[in-house]
Write a structure and sequence with these properties.
The chain is an alpha+beta fold. It folds into 3 domains: 218 residues, no CATH class; 189 residues, no CATH class; 96 residues, no CATH class. The chain contains 26 helices and 14 strands. The strands form 4 sheets. The protein has a 7-stranded mixed sheet. A 3-stranded antiparallel sheet has the order 10-9-11. A two-stranded parallel ribbon has the order 5-8. Helix 1 packs across helix 4 and helix 18 packs antiparallel against helix 25.
Length: 592
């Protein structure tokens, strides 16, 4: 039987005073800002809010479990996890088993903020995460948009609000301390509203006030049993359908409940954060770490399947956790040394076999940097880059079966070096060959700027570029030159302009360039820039040969000839590199 739980304001007070808490088996908050905005619109439109499942934990029982608080000020990089409350000794609490996402969304929208990374900015840049509050446009036209939303809720920072002169944005958290009636009307008048605009804003704000303070929208079912096994079974049955909770969330929940010595939740979340801070920053997830755990701990199948969540497997995962952590950190440091990061790593799963290799070998701490291990690292890099370049997708369908087979191969043949030849053979047997047919190479030559495979391809072609420092994917002939107006002014015939623009973003007009050099180059034509940078003709010739640039015309009118000639040079090199297996000698020469 469901019970009434009062208003949203009542629920937020219970969150604030730690009466509502999250059990350790709960997953993290995963909603995006747009989902919170839609939730508030649904509440304003009077749509059903849904019911909740609570677990009443008695004071005599609460000391046996660990609990977490709700996220309040979400920061995608620095504060994405639920704060730990620890053990609530001699205190009865209500643990939320179902409804965490909705309650957290209300908590953030009405009491907190969100800071999400902005596109095209580095994770290491603090300015990439502006703090934004939920706001409601009191004067927006209440007409349904394509998703059926009527009320205009948006997470905005102060600068965005200042730039939007056509709206009247209200900070939604202010509604908690606001009285209704005449004082609300006076407050709107103090904002400069009058006439029809005043009444429109008043009706919108009054509706928000009633949704938060008046309507009894919280209804719940309460589980009173104090048996954690029963509660865990309820949680699993509730969330194992695949739509509400992912299997990685389920695995984490069970690990939290079954690990004896290590705090699984804290350890796994800390490792994810530590991995993502390496190099220029990665976007690895809990799923990646947990699948790595299954793989490295030699659990029979690496899939997120219920039969893998046994107490024996969880014990094995806990026992091997310190070594798993070291291997994953070393693997991401290795990937970063290849120049990979969250923007250039196309498939996280490609790193899992690599992680199993140091886990089995336990290489020295200087493995990633010492010249003694250079050949082994190069073998790994070549194998990884090839797998990332396959348009058909090595790391898509049949992933769990492939990972298990690759693990078996590394266990059998990876004692002294990374077994590239054996891995390629196993992959080929599963129709995932790393050899490239002529048509595939032709596709690579037509790859365009912005393709997530582009960095991998350029780093394969030009391995001499120092990828440990900042580098750019640079247009040989600057992209800014390829506008219709500038091309026409440069003497390009009208019927060739579309082809010029299309070819400007393709592989033959791209190169890897160190960041400082690219900033220096800017919009300078390549011939002029090379003359400035390398006054000596011998040095210029050496640079052109290394980068497969061929003859570079002085003016833009010669671009098409340059593009065709360089495409032929790149085709020849890619055919040589990708159509056959790497030399066996290079693989066997890997240092032990």
């Amino acid at each position: 039987m469901y019970k009434p739980g009062g208003t949203i304001a009542d629920a937020l007070k219970r969150i604030q005073n730690k009466s509502y808490v999250l059990p350790a088996i709960q997953r993290e908050f995963v909603w995006k800002p747009e989902q919170i905005e839609r939730l508030f619109d649904s509440l304003m439109q009077g749509y059903p809010f849904g019911t909740f499942l609570f677990w009443r934990v008695e004071a005599s029982t609460s000391g046996k479990f660990k609990f977490y608080d709700f996220v309040l000020n979400y920061h995608q990089r620095d504060a994405a996890h639920c704060p730990e409350l620890g053990i609530m000794h001699h205190q009865s609490v209500t643990a939320v088993l179902d409804g965490q996402q909705r309650l957290t969304a209300l908590n953030i929208g009405l009491r907190g903020s969100m800071a999400i990374k902005q596109p095209n900015k580095w994770w290491t840049n603090s300015d990439a995460f502006p703090v934004r509050l939920l706001r409601l446009d009191l004067l927006a036209a209440q007409e349904p948009d394509e998703d059926g939303a009527i009320y205009r809720f948006k997470f905005l920072d102060d600068a965005q609000v200042a730039r939007d002169e056509n709206s009247h944005w209200f900070k939604v958290p202010d509604i908690l301390g606001m009285a209704d009636g005449p004082s609300m009307l006076s407050g709107l008048m103090a904002r400069g509203l009058e006439g029809e605009a005043l009444m429109k804003a008043y009706h919108t704000l009054d509706r928000l006030h009633r949704v938060v303070h008046t309507h009894n929208l919280i209804n719940y079912y309460e589980e009173e049993a104090q048996d954690v096994e029963r509660v865990l079974n309820i949680f699993i049955r509730l969330n194992s359908g695949g739509t509400v909770l992912s299997y990685s969330d389920l695995l984490l929940s069970i690990a939290v409940a079954q690990w004896k010595q290590i705090d699984a939740r804290a350890e796994i979340h800390k490792l994810v954060d530590d991995l993502n801070r390496i190099g220029a920053g990665f976007n690895l997830s809990q799923d990646f770490v947990l699948k790595a755990g299954l793989m490295l701990a030699d659990i029979a199948s690496v899939g997120f399947k219920v039969e893998n969540f046994t107490s024996t497997n969880m014990a094995a995962l806990e026992a091997n956790w310190p070594a798993i952590r070291i291997a994953l950190l070393q693997t991401i440091e290795l990937a970063a040394s290849f120049g990979l990061n969250g923007q250039t790593l196309r498939a996280d799963s490609a790193l899992l076999p690599i992680a199993y290799y140091p886990y089995r070998r336990n290489p020295p701490a200087n493995y990633v940097t010492h010249s003694q291990h250079a050949a082994d690292r190069e073998a790994i890099r070549g194998w990884l880059i090839r797998s990332l370049l396959k348009a058909s997708g090595i790391w898509g369908s049949g992933l769990d079966t492939l990972l298990t087979a690759l693990r078996d191969t590394i266990r059998a043949h990876g004692e002294t070096s990374f077994p590239v030849t054996d891995l390629r053979q196993v992959m080929a047997q599963r129709s995932k060959t790393l050899n490239f047919e002529a048509a595939e190479i032709e596709d690579l030559l037509h790859m365009e700027y912005g393709d997530k495979r582009m960095f991998a391809l350029l780093s394969l072609l030009f391995p001499f570029v120092d990828l440990r420092n900042q580098f750019h994917i640079d247009h040989v002939f600057p992209a800014s030159r390829f506008t219709r107006a500038r091309l026409s002014k440069a003497g390009i015939p009208e019927d060739r302009i579309d082809a010029f623009c299309r070819h400007a973003n393709q592989l033959p007009n791209l190169q890897l360039l160190e960041g400082a050099a690219n900033i220096e180059k800017q919009a300078t034509l390549p011939a002029a820039w090379l003359t400035q940078r390398f006054p000596d003709e011998t040095a210029r010739k050496h640079y052109r040969e290394k980068h497969l640039l061929g003859a570079i015309p002085d003016e833009l009118v010669g671009f098409e000839d340059f593009h065709k000639a360089r495409r032929d040079l790149l085709r020849a090199k890619l055919t040589e590199m990708l159509s056959t297996a790497p030399p066996v000698a290079a693989v066997s020469a890997a240092a032990s």
